[in-house]
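Question: Hello, beginner here. Any chance you could explain the protein record under this note? Any guidance would be welcome.
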Amino acid sequence: MERISPDKWYQTRRLDDGVTAISEPFIQEFYRCNIWHVRGRDRDMLVDSGMGVVSLREWVPLVTEREVIAVASHTHFDHIGCHHEFECRAVHSAEADLLANPTRANTLADPYVTDEIFDALPPEPYCSKCYGVKKAAATRILEDGDVIDLGDRTFDVIHTPGHSPGGIALWEAKTETLFSGDILYDGPLIEDTYHSNAADYVASMERLLTIPVHVVHGGHFPSFSGERYRALITDWLKNKQKKM
């Protein structure tokens, strides 16, 4: 399989409201995490950090321009691979141990990370069988209701267990923007990981439905509108009720 040089590994796309989408286009879409950079007055925020197969700090200058807090929406391999590169790292308390002590199993790198998840491979010496997330103990432990303050922007932490025990979403009421992580995105949701919980998933979806969202930036797949957000949650909950 073709190898991609590090300078071509990442793509960036500036959106509205100081948000930049960073992606790894050579990872197949289902496995490709959305990395979100949010510009603030006093510091910036990075929501998730990708697989870590190519350095974010070295090859995406945007993330080094100012002080940044790297937030983990949860601790699966595709979301925390570059967290070790950042001085300030935040994660929910329920998954702090995973960020500090990642393994191939507890981050889901085993069984998902194989050459087959790539359309082209990262530069040498990358090896799928050797891949693992590096340790990156949190410098800030998050709980439901905490606030991440960027100076002129504040994001409320919403604990959204279900996909994983320490999943979080980040809500900016001023712009009605939600960074939803992997609890909800516009694609096939994963509800059966080793630490998923069906009852928690339902409770999280019911809670999210009460939030007056205008735009959603999910953990995977393209961003979508508040109308689509409400339709996705409503349909998901209806399907769950039919199976009860």
User: Anything to note?
Assistant: The first strand starts at residue 11 and ends at 14. The two ends are 45 Å apart (CA to CA). The chain has one domain: 6-242.
